Amino acid sequence: MTGFPAGSRARVSLIIATTAVLALTASACGGGSGSSTSADGTVTVTVNDMPAKTDPVNRKIFLQDVAAFEKLHPKIKVVPHEGQMDPQTFATKLAGGQLENAFYVYYTDPAGLIAKHQAADISSYLSQFPAVNQVKPQLRKVFQDASGHTYGLPEGNYSMGLVYNRALFQRAGLDPDKPPATWDEVRADAKKIAALGKGVVGYGDYSKSNTGGWHFTAEMYSRGGAVAKQQSDGTWKADFDNATGKAVLQQLHDMRWTDGSMGQRQLLEWADLLQMMGAGKLGMYLATADNIPTIASQYKGDPKDYGLGPIPGGKGTLAGGGGFMFSPKDTPAQIKAAMAWVTFKYENPDRIETGVQRASQAKQPVGLPEPNIWTGAAARTKSAADQKYANQPVANYAPFQQALPGIPLILEPPKAQQLYAVLDTAMAKVLTQKDADIDALLSDASRQVDSLLAAP
């Protein structure tokens, strides 16, 4: 789960460009993923992540960047493809020489690709691209092995927080600048919001179409727990049939049945909570920052009404995103050319403001706290640019922004979607059955997850 509807990857691209031509040494031989070096030294590289024709604004921007890159790098030709890496077809494309030289992956993919030697080691080339050092270390680590070798470059990121309705907070006598920081505070605030009546729900949660298991995982992380734990032999086992797992389900049960703060309608999936928030009928729920402009654009909410706080508990937050890896069949010249493209498009702090300005002019959301891959001076540059060109209420996201550096970022578990489907059942039963046996639900789910994780 990415925080977005299944089958989509809604994100705001960082439209950035380089300011100097990189010196690239072309290899005399071609090959590698269907690309080559011509007689005059021109290196051709294939890349994916080009937006589809159904997204004309971002597709136009992407192709403009290809043209600008090729103008600065006359010895590199970029051949763009739509889409990202598909785990179902990856091995076939790699074996058949059809894999792009630079290919987009989600943060859950690199560890497996590195272990199977299905991505190029780019460690020796990093010194030629110093901007990568301003990317957050925890994001760069996603693309590293145990020895610290690097196999990819981050492009974007997200983490879970608490989206809340500032207008309802005010009506309930709560401070809209101080969202709840603990799960006890969530419960207390949800009761006050639900007491407003007229169909208002204090806190909403999912329990269908894998979204329930996704939120259960996020809530486990927030309390310092996990849903799966890697063993000393490298295998994984379920890790939620314990006091932390019981605390997650018990609180939801009590809010639903004792407090009445979660409403009567349950078995909710992704769009349901956004729709409720847009209609002014929901106080708060766990989500990523991009939900807010979606609530406004698709569900007619007023962006000024919504705030973003850190995930309650703050012991960990489910995080994700993506970046680029490089075909193990690439020649050195192809690796350097492909890295030049990726850093041109996604990792050059010198043109952050240009990218933010262009996104604002294209009426893309500007001012959300994420995606933001930067640290240090680059992070300050992006913050200033977001303030300057914001079309979102930046101040409403301050609680999230201020707390995030102190909250560990934790990736999704292995076989995440299959695990989420199992955990949906526990979430659904707790929210629809007053007499649900929480211990039995956790035990049954744990056995199923162990079987899934043990399967090849």
Automatic annotation (TrEMBL):
Keywords: Signal. It holds the Pfam family SBP_bac_1. The keyword Signal applies. Residues 1-28 form the signal peptide. The keyword Transferase does not apply. This is ABC-type glycerol-3-phosphate transport system, substrate-binding protein. The lineage of its organism: Bacteria, Bacillati, Actinomycetota, Actinomycetes, Kitasatosporales.
